[in-house]
Design goal:
The protein is α/β, with parallel strands linked by helices and about 210 residues long. Helix 1 packs parallel to helix 3, helix 2 packs across helix 3 and helix 2 packs antiparallel against helix 5. Helices cover about 40% and strands about 25% of the residues. Strands 3-2-1-4-5-7-6 form a 7-stranded mixed beta sheet, sandwiched between helices. The chain starts with a helix and ends with a strand. Helix 5 links the parallel strand 2 and strand 3.
Length: about 210
């Protein structure tokens, strides 16, 4: 199936309405990722048809849980989920953070080729990142366990901010290790074309 049809059908099944130019840019990003991946091994997913559900739709499934205006993508890797979210939500200011120079180089190239004005790329470890202004939404996809992620990044969360932690199976043990300071709500996600379980954990400060 053509990539544009896969994406369009997936978005429709998820109830996400994106303008045609945005969908086109999502596919430009996907093909750029596929091209760079041949040389730089940015993702284990090689097939562009698999990249649509595993990367694009998976990233966009958290759209309903974003609160702005400032958002941080912790351990963005190849710009996931940050770049798809930036394309879908041009009203948000997104900072994409990763310590890997190869991956931030790709994310920077993608940002320029897509003409994204609402994205900042930072190469730094999250523990050492100290921007002037904190973030309203902090999102982590395949970054670390929930307790480790909180320990490394809680200094970056605004007083009324939230963490969105993207997980596969329901993270029972990780949630049990979050003993104080946060309220957790877990939402099951359905991604067309992806049989694996997916959840997002929404963490908000308890006080």
């Amino acid at each position: 199936m053509k990539l544009d049809k896969l994406l369009r059908q997936g978005l429709q099944d998820m109830g996400i309405g994106l303008a045609a130019p945005v969908q086109e840019k999502l596919l430009v990003f996907l093909l750029l990722l596929e091209k760079w991946n041949r040389s730089y091994n940015l993702t284990a997913v090689r097939d562009p048809e698999q990249m649509v559900p595993r990367h694009l739709l998976d990233s966009l499934t958290v759209l309903p849980y974003l609160e702005g205006p400032r958002m941080l993508d912790i351990g963005t890797g190849a710009g996931l989920p940050g770049i798809p979210l930036a394309l879908a939500r041009p009203d948000l200011e997104l900072t994409l953070l990763d310590s890997n120079a190869k991956k931030t180089r790709f994310a920077t190239q993608a940002m320029h080729e897509l003409g994204l004005k609402n994205v900042t790329i930072v190469q730094e470890r999250v523990e050492k990142f100290h921007p002037q202004t904190k973030f309203d939404t902090l999102i982590a996809r395949a970054f670390a366990s929930i307790p480790d992620m909180l320990a490394a990044s809680r200094h970056l969360c605004a007083a009324r901010g939230r963490f969105l932690v993207m997980k596969g199976v329901f993270p029972q043990e990780e949630l049990a290790a979050v003993t104080e300071g946060y309220r957790a709500e877990v939402k099951a996600l359905r991604i067309p074309g992806l049989d694996a379980a997916r959840h997002v954990v929404v963490l908000t400060p308890a006080n």
